Amino acid sequence: MATKSSGTSPDKRRKYDEAFKAEALRLAGESRSTQAATRQLGISPKLLYRWQQAQLVAEVGSEEVARDPEDRALRARLKRAEQELDILKKALVIFGQPTR
């Protein structure tokens, strides 16, 4: 009995360089939807989630800490607070300018 191959062998897998991965992670970080970022980049959501997990493990230094849901939630809140602070700083510059 012959089996049908799926058409993708391990030799034909796409390779992504570090610059593409960094850009994908940046885009996913800025985007509200990881799914939208993966559609825009033309990659699998699972692949992007794997890259995000690897980046988190590299930042934290421990896979156990990276998987802790409370730690992840606190990191997400911190990231959002930092983004809000950046927006407020920009608004302060814009509204702090004298009117003509």
From TrEMBL:
Name of protein: Transposase
InterPro entries xref list: Homeodomain-like_sf (IPR009057), Transposase_8 (IPR002514)
Pfam families documented for this protein: HTH_Tnp_1
GO molecular function: DNA binding; transposase activity
Gene Ontology terms describing biological process: DNA transposition
